[in-house]
């Protein structure tokens, strides 16, 4: 694909900071070797297979467990529930499909179902594998239809509780409010009731699989916004629901909802309304194709001219730090440790409480205590807990200064490797003050082994690293 900027170190740096999970010398070298357009084209190729995928599944095999499969039989629920969460984080830390994993994260939180709850062995894992991941670079229409045919969603938003004419409105409401047209689209409380009525009969069956049971479908005329039906028979309820979902998926308000979600992730916490409208039209012109919207984003000046306008959320901070030190060898234990730490920061993957998914704007994550926790983790990642991550030999070598190298030159070299930018004056001053080193001094013989990790952590504390 062709983007409106020249392939340059600055462009590659911005692309990785904003659309990927990692920055620094190793990540940027990979993009440079492929070329910016070729790397971006590969990232947006639905057929591209991540070479890390086999490793992720060898670490956490139950991440792929299917509902009521032989693999699930007799398995401890405590093994199946966290497996998809663990594999998700492992892919984000070590995988090659950085943009794809970002898009998956957007839609895991858009058509959100919390994981790790007691809703059925393998159902939450299967939801991600059957609903979100296959369609993340495909059509939103297909993803929405798949979510409305999955037992986990039917349980999570209580559609299974609609029985004998008693309708639970939860799924019908969230389908309109969160998944499709949104609260500003003009639907009414009567529309919510009609939405729930249309979708009644969809449920998790007694075998744990999705089922449509006509006896639980409530008949009678329905209208939701411009969608209307006589809804005359219980047998026709499943087809009616699919027709309704297709109507919602292709509604201009849904187009704006999806466009805004992607623009917030990849462009700005508060994207230009004109950009959102342009992306929404692309969505409609391409039969709800998510990849087409992404291509339009990456071809836009809005993407390329907003460097440094977003801030890393906790997960992006932790994942970015690990990627920056360039792990030579991915480690399962390190992933598990990071899952636990992200729980302390309130950003453990797929563990948000409400059905609206994790917030994607910095204002929702502003906290002095969380900032201190992030700084503590930076120290651990580059210092005492490096053995869990096995930093690259290249990164480790940076800790050893050249003979006669000044402190400023040494710090700058480490900073360029770790975060892909020269050390600013604040970092240089902080590094010298940290150990009372005068301006222009050479690195003391024992300094690298003694305080290299402490100085390196300064890079990840900095505004330079925090902005995206």
Which SSEs are present, and which pair or pack?
Blueprint: H1 9-19, H2 25-34, H3 36-43, H4 53-59, H5 77-94, H6 98-110, H7 123-132, H8 140-147, H9 151-156, H10 170-179, H11 189-199, E1 202-204, E2 210-212, E3 222-224, E4 227-229, H12 237-249, H13 252-266, H14 273-285, H15 290-298, H16 301-304, H17 314-324, H18 332-344, H19 368-382, H20 393-398, H21 407-419, H22 425-434, H23 447-461, H24 463-466
What are the salient characteristics of this protein?
468 residues, mainly alpha, two-stranded antiparallel sheet, 24 helices
Sequence of strands across the biggest β-sheet = 1-2
Please, what is the average pLDDT? Answer: 89
Count the DSSP helices: 24
Helix proportion of residues, in percent?
Answer: 40-55%
Radius of gyration of CA atoms, rounded to a whole number = 24 Å
Structural class: mainly alpha
Uncertain runs: none
The N- to C-terminal Cα distance equals: 23 Å
Order of helices and strands: HHHHHHHHHHHEEEEHHHHHHHHHHHHH
């Amino acid at each position: 694909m062709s983007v409106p900027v020249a392939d340059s170190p600055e462009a590659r740096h911005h692309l990785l900071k904003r659309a990927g999970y990692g920055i620094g010398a190793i990540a940027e070298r990979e993009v440079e070797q492929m070329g910016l357009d070729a790397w971006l084209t590969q990232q947006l190729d639905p057929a591209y297979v991540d070479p890390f995928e086999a490793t992720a599944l060898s670490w956490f095999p139950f991440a792929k467990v299917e509902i009521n499969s032989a693999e699930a039989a007799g398995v401890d629920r405590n093994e199946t529930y966290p497996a998809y969460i663990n594999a998700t984080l492992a892919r984000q830390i070590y995988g090659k499909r950085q943009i794809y994993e970002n898009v998956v994260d957007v839609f895991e939180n858009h058509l959100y179902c919390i994981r790790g709850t007691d809703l059925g062995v393998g159902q939450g894992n299967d939801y991600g594998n059957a609903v979100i991941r296959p369609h993340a670079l495909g059509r939103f229409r297909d993803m929405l239809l798949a979510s409305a045919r999955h037992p986990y969603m039917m349980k999570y938003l209580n559609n299974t509780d609609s029985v004998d004419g008693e309708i639970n409105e939860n799924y019908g409401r969230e389908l309109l409010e969160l998944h499709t047209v949104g609260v500003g689209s003009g639907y009414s409380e009567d529309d919510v009731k009609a939405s729930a009525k249309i979708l009644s009969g969809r449920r998790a069956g007694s075998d744990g699989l999705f089922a449509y049971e006509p006896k639980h479908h409530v008949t009678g005329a329905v209208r939701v916004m411009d969608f209307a039906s006589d809804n005359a028979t219980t047998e026709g309820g499943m087809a009616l629901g699919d027709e309704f979902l297709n109507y919602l998926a292709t509604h201009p308000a849904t187009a704006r909802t999806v466009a805004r979600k992607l623009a917030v992730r990849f462009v700005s916490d508060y994207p230009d309304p004109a950009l959102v409208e342009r992306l929404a039209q692309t969505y409609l012109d391409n039969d709800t194709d998510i990849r087409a919207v992404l291509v339009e984003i990456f071809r836009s000046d809005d993407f390329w001219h907003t460097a440094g306008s977003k801030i890393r959320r906790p997960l992006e901070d932790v994942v970015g730090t690990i990627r920056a030190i360039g792990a030579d060898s991915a480690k399962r234990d390190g992933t598990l440790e990071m899952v636990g730490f992200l729980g302390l920061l309130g950003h453990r993957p797929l563990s948000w409480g409400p059905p609206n998914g994790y917030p994607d704007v910095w204002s929702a994550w502003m906290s002095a205590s969380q900032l201190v926790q992030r700084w503590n983790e930076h120290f651990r990642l580059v210092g005492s807990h490096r053995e869990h991550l096995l930093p690259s030999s290249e990164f480790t070598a940076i800790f050893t200064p050249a003979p006669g190298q000044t402190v400023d030159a040494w710090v700058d070299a480490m900073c360029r490797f770790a975060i892909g930018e020269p050390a600013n004056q604040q970092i240089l001053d902080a590094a010298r003050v940290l150990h009372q080193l005068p301006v222009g001094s050479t690195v003391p013989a024992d300094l690298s082994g003694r305080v290299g990790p402490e100085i390196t952590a300064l890079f990840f504390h900095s505004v330079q690293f925090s902005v995206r």
